[in-house]
Specification:
The complex is a heterodimer of chains A (about 110) and B (about 110).
Chain A (H helix, E strand, L loop, with lengths): L8 E5 L4 E6 L8 E7 L6 E6 L4 E2 L4 E4 L5 E6 L8 E11 L2 E4 L5 E6 L1
Parallel strand pairs in A: 1-10
Antiparallel strand pairs in A: 2-7, 3-4, 3-8, 5-6, 6-7, 8-9, 8-10
Chain B lengths: L3 E4 L2 E4 L5 E7 L5 E7 L5 E9 L2 E4 L6 E7 L2 E6 L8 E8 L8 E3 L3 E5 L1
Parallel strand pairs in B: 2-11
Antiparallel strand pairs in B: 1-3, 3-8, 4-5, 4-9, 5-6, 7-8, 9-10, 9-11
The chains are: A mainly beta (about 110), B mainly beta (about 110).
Chain lengths: ~110, ~110
């Protein structure tokens, strides 16, 4: 299965942009890049996903490299509520069955 | 919020007893997943289902079995619970109309095996 690599932890100041990197050098042409985050004592929640083009939604932006071997989740203006573990995941089709496998994620700390 | 409910939310059981966790959805989604999360770790996939009676193993399936006899319910069974299965268990659902659909997660079940 294709794997993702993320830094274990990152810190950012409140109200500043945050760029969370993810490497996925073994990505296949049809694999989607998904991002989820997990707040303390909660289940993961969906953030954003994309295939080739950059994507924006109300929570974040996703910048995908042209060769698709890496991507960056962008939080435009971090708040204390954004402190969480962020997971970059490749959603891949396994002979038509779609596995959703998590890596270790990046723990984001927001500094007031 | 996506219609996904896990039960029970908390359970303490003794080593060697069978335990069944239930994941129930009201969304009619095709895919359902069971994960476990241990302190300081990410989520590890146990089993998943891609339709009624269609299931497959994940990364850590040993000691676990699953069943899906109807679309809305996905059951995770520990046939003989061990202390190493003490964990927080999460269920997730996805529409499964392609890779372009997101997953929704339940609030988790905290299982303690003593």
């Amino acid at each position: 299965d294709a794997k993702t690599t993320q830094p274990n932890s990152m810190e950012s100041n409140e109200e500043e942009p945050v760029h969370l990197p993810c490497n996925h050098s073994t990505i296949s042409g049809t694999d989607y890049i998904h991002w989820y985050r997990q707040l303390p004592s909660q289940g993961p929640e969906y953030v954003i996903h994309g295939l080739t083009s950059n994507v924006n939604n109300r929570m974040a932006s996703l910048a995908i490299a042209e060769d698709r071997k890496s991507s960056t989740l962008i939080l435009h203006r971090a708040t204390l509520r954004d402190a969480a573990v962020y997971y970059c995941i490749l959603l891949l089709s396994n002979f038509g069955n779609e596995k959703l496998t998590f890596g270790t994620g990046t723990r984001l700390t927001i500094i007031p | 919020d996506a219609g996904i409910t896990q039960s029970p939310r908390h359970k303490v059981t003794e080593t060697g007893t069978p335990v069944t966790l239930r994941c129930h959805q009201t969304e009619n989604h095709r895919y359902m997943y069971w994960y476990r999360q241990d302190p300081g770790h990410g989520l590890r996939l146990i089993h998943y289902s891609y339709g009624v009676k269609d299931t497959d193993k994940g990364e850590v399936s040993d000691g676990y079995s699953v069943s899906r006899s109807k679309t809305e319910d996905f059951l995770l069974t520990l046939e003989s619970a061990t202390s190493s299965q003490t964990s927080v268990y999460f269920c997730a659902i996805r529409a499964g109309t392609g890779l372009n659909t997101e997953a929704f997660f339940g609030q988790g079940t905290r299982l303690t095996v003593v």
